[in-house]
Each structure stands twice: as C-alpha cells, then as structure tokens.
C-alpha cells in the first residue's frame, strides 16, 4: 500500500525538499502541494490524501483552521494531519491536536523521523512527535492555552469508560504502544487494541493523539513537573 502524502507549506523551497524525500521512499508518494490552508483542504479531498504535512502558519487560511476543516469533514475521516512547526515550542501545538491533528514535528526534524511520522500517522497508531512532545503538551495543558468550552463535556464523557478502558487510556497518554501496554497490564495486544478502539468511539476521538489530549484535559492524567 502506497501512502498518499500532501504537502502544505507556503515555502516552495521547503515543499520541494520534502517532496524529494517522500518520493524517494517506495511506500509513499506526494500527490499534491498546497501553499495555503484552503488549498490544502481542497487537495486533501480531491487527491484522497492519507497524510497531510501541514505548516501551522500560512497566509489566508492557516494550518490550524485547515486541520479543523479536514477533521470536521466526514468524507475525510481517514485523513491524518501532521503539523509542522518552525519551533518545537509553539503556542498552537495543543490547539492543533484539539483541531484534529495526529501530532506535530519541528521542521528541523531528521529525515528518518519525518518519514517515520508519516508512516505512524497513516497507521493511526501513536502521537507523532519527538519524545519531549508529551511533556510539552502537558505543560501547555497545565498552563491553559485558551478557553475550551468542550473540556467539561469531554471530562463527563470519561464516565462512559470502563475501569479497564481508563487504565488503557492512562497508558496511551504515557506514550506506550499496544504491545507495551499489553505487557504492563498482562493482557494480549489484541485486547488492548479493542479497549483503545472502544475508548476512541466513546470519546469521539479520531486517533490516539486525541486520546492523549483528552486524558490530560479531563484530569485523568496529570502533567509531571520537570
């Protein structure tokens, strides 16, 4: 299966560099390039993209708004967005995840890291970012990065989870894979996957990245001071 990748960035030179990198891989191809968010939304749908590498800051419709449009469109429920940031510390990171992004990477990420992020996003398996991202997200959520009227509703939704689903959610928020969670909870990976899928359905989460944000927003997982 070939992963169809859309590049969305207002810098043509950067898009060209990403295109060469992505097209060099046998399991992925660039199916389109966009210089602003509105164009990215149109192309993501028209080209049936699997993963969109989306710059946060673009003229006109920015990456945050574009990600929300993609997330809200049922016809693009399979599309995964990886936000690209100039700086690792970006005030829009958590907003991007809330808008539906699967995660984010700094533009200075190593080629292997970027390619790995695309594959992980296409598989919908994990939060995409360097190891430090989890702590960064925790700090943003602890500080409060703006009003979020949906937070109380999300907190109440946790009541729908079973005890085991909560346990699994805590492990997911800790950045652990299904195999790691299975070992920690002494169950099979298939059982973990079932609990994750049920938690996603009950909480209205698109993927594991959304589960992580909800876990922190709801207070189920607390940021560690470091």
UniProtKB/TrEMBL annotation:
Source organism of the structure: Streptomyces flavofungini
Domain HTH luxR-type: 154-219
Keyword set, alphabetical order: DNA-binding, Phosphoprotein, Transcription, Transcription regulation
Highest taxon above the source species: Bacteria
Residue intervals of the Response regulatory domain: 4-122
Keyword DNA-binding appears in the UniProt entry: yes
Keyword Metal-binding annotated: no
List of residues that carry 4-aspartylphosphate: 55
Listed SMART domains: HTH_LUXR (SM00421), REC (SM00448)
Name of protein: Response regulator transcription factor
